[in-house]
Amino acid sequence: MRRLKVGIDGRGFASPAAGVRRYVSELVPALLAIDDSLELIALGGAADSVPAGVHHVPESWHPPTNLGWATVGLPQSARRAAVDLIHAPAYTAPLYAAVPTVLTIHDVSYERHPGWYPYRRDWVRRSFYRRSARAAAHILTDSEFSRGEIAAAYGTALDRITVAPLGAAHTFAEGDPAIATSLPEGISVPFLLHVGDLHERRNLSIVVHALMDARRRLAPTPLSLVLAGVDHGVGDRLSAIAAHEGAAEAVVRLGAVSEPMLRALYHGAAALVYPSRYEGFGLPLVEAMASGTPAIASRAASIPEVVGEAGVLLDPDDAQRWGDAIVEVMTDPMLRARMRKDGLRRAAMFTWERTARITLDVYKRVAEGSR
Q1: According to the model, what pLDDT value does residue 179 have?
Q2: I need a surface site. Which of 164, 279, 297, 347 has the fewest CB within 10 A?
């Protein structure tokens, strides 16, 4: 059988976006595990970030910008590597290439809600994303919600978009020896956890207000909110809410955390709180459920599709109900036990092997169609 050679954008393995790094670092080993006739080649990026079993081709010359890489360097590197197709794992793809491109679009929040992205040149990024989507031979996305959003945003036919839900690594399971045994300094139990960049669309102020309400009702329990993720301009506002209530210590901002520490946080948290208004998937929800941690989340975007009946889903704007839900989870051991059981069962549905099998099928269909 002829080997299928797929060139994956190697910059994804060291992407500044944690979700993109997780996607490629989990997907690639899963692909290699299910098909030994598949040859994966990392096109560009840092050689030391490429996982075992993946060949690496250095970057071809290109203008020194991300746009220059995607439009010039990536297709040139793909030509040097003689691949059958390119997989661009995060929004941008060559507009012209000698072989077809499979493009992963995780969400289109920047297109559907541009007000959340007040960057001076955001229109340039949006334009390039749009042209990338239209140039791709096929699009992968993480949820049915995102599939519909991509079709609406770009006028893409639904049969050109395939849903490949993400997974949770086995290392989030309870009892894994890789889980750190201690929490960072300044964190004490009980605490609520949010994982993900601190961004306007994440709607975190609703949780801080709800936390203040829950602290009053749970006194003297010193409940806190731990935020694990890069701050994109909302962190000071969240801390100010807590400080105004005389509880500055109630909001703990960690920034980016290591993988072992992330696992420890999931396992130590009383609950994951996820009030986001817009998600293409919401990987922390699956990771929390896989860790046996109750999930309290918004009834918005892809989140109900991911959580199902396993978590508490709330109106993202109802602060009173968020406070009630936090108190209920904190004080009802039977509810926590049920949510833990349901969450573990739900998380087991989301595996990287499943993601890989759907992705591989798309690779094969696209490669066959190009011959």
Answers
A1: 54
A2: 164
